[in-house]
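Complex 280.
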Amino acid sequence: MERILTVRDMQARAEALRREGKRIGFVPTMGYLHEGHLSLIDEAKKHSDIVVVSVFVNPTQFGPHEDLESYPRDIDRDEALAASRGAGLMFYPSVKEMYPGTQQTWVQVEDLTGVLCGASREGHFRGVSTVVTKLFHIVKPHVAVFGQKDAQQAAVIMKMAADLNMDIRILVAPIVREADGLAMSSRNVRLTPENRKKAVILSQSLFGIREGLLKGQPAGALLEEARAAISAVPGAKLEYLELRSYPALEELTELRGTCLAAVAARFGDVRLIDNVMIKI
Ligand code: AMP
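Predicted structure with adenosine monophosphate bound:
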C-alpha cells in the first residue's frame, strides 16, 4: 500500500487516476482505525476502483481544552489494517502540510451546527467542514463515505456538498458496535476498565428509546427516563440526550419520518457520542 505525505503528491496521484478513468473512493479518518472505519472502506470499495484513506488528526476541529494531544495514534497499524481491507492509498499529511500558513478561509454550515455537539463544541464543525473541503480538493474523490456514528457530521457534510455543488457522492454507513452495544470509537481505548463497562449505558438508553417510540410510548417520558438512567451512573456526565429530525436536526413537534436520538456524555476525560435512527 502506498503512503502519500504531501498535498502535491496526492493531487498528482488523484489526477493520474482520474485520467486513467478510475473512480476514487475516499474515507477520511483521524486514524487509530477500528472495525467502524474498516466498514467504511468496505462500503467505499463497492462504489470505486481505488480507495484512499486519509489519516489526519485535524487541530482546527478541537477546542482548546479538548483531547488533541492525547488522541490515540499509530500510523503503521492503521496502514496495515487499511491494506488488509483493500484500501489502495493512505494519505497521511502533517499539520504543517495541511495548514502551512494561517487559515483565513473557512467553510461554515449554518443552522445544522448550532445544536447537539455544535452547541458545546464551538468551532468544531467549522473545522470539520473546512478540513473535509480541503481533503476533497486534494483526494478528488468521486465518492466519499462517512459513518452514521457521527450523525450530525454526516448531515453537515451532506448539506455542505449540496450547497457548494460538490460533484462527490456522499454515502453514510451504519454504526459498528462492540459485542455489548458500545459504539466503536478510537477514543474507547482511553476509557478506564470501569468506565468502559459503564459506557454501555449510552447504547442501552438509545435502544430503550427506540423500542419505546416504536411501541408508541410518549417521547418526553422516554427521554427523561433515559437521561435519569445515564446521570445515575457514577462518574458519567451527560451532555445531551435529544430527539431531532434527520437530517435537518430540527426539534420535533411530532414524531414522523426519520428521527435521530443522539447522546453525548463524558466518562472521566473521555467524551463519547452515540445515536440511533428511528423510522416512524
Ligand atoms: P474518526 O476517525 O473518528 O474521525 O472517524 C472517521 C469516520 O469513521 C467518520 O466518518 C466516522 O463517522 C466513522 N466512524 C467512526 N466510528 C464508527 C463506527 N463505530 N461505525 C461506523 N463508522 C464509524
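The longest helix spans residues 124-139.
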